[in-house]
Amino acid sequence: NGMSHSSGGFSMSCRVRRESIEPRDMFHGMILTMDTYACALKNAARMISDGYFARNLQQRYISYKSGFGQLLDKGTTNFDECEEYSRKKGEPQPQSGRYEHFENMFNYYIYPAQKAITNAPYHARM
Question: Rounded to whole angstroms, how far apart are CA atoms 49 and 21?
Fold first, then answer.
């Protein structure tokens, strides 16, 4: 039974699972959970502070900032207007969603480049 709240929060999920039945296993599970949350928070802060991901995301959806895209985004159009717009514009030209670019960019924040530490103990490399 983890620590959870009806209005949000997160679960530390300290419960017996698999063969991990000793208290020390749960202790290490809690440490891993806290480390994971801390790492995620640091990555999110870096992602927000450098602005690169946000700029790329904004560029990807720039067509929703004006014209017909803005009407769609705000929900102020209907099917008849969509049909009329489609008939006027004709077949759209496909554009790349750049999925791989975004995936690589996201992975950069999750798995940042680290200095090679070859002689350090395992826990010091993390």
Answer: 41
Clarify whether residues 28 and 77 are in a common domain.
no
Q: Is the dihedral of CA 112, 113, 115, 118 positive or negative?
A: positive
Query: Is residue 28 located within the same domain as residue 55?
Result: no
Span 64-87, pLDDT tens digits: 999 999 999 999 999 999 999 999
Q: Angle at Cα 109 formed by Cα 108 and Cα 110, nearest 5°?
A: 95
CB 19 within 8 A of CB 10: no
Domain hosting 5: range is 1-50
Kindly report whether the global pTM for this prediction surpasses the value 0.70.
no
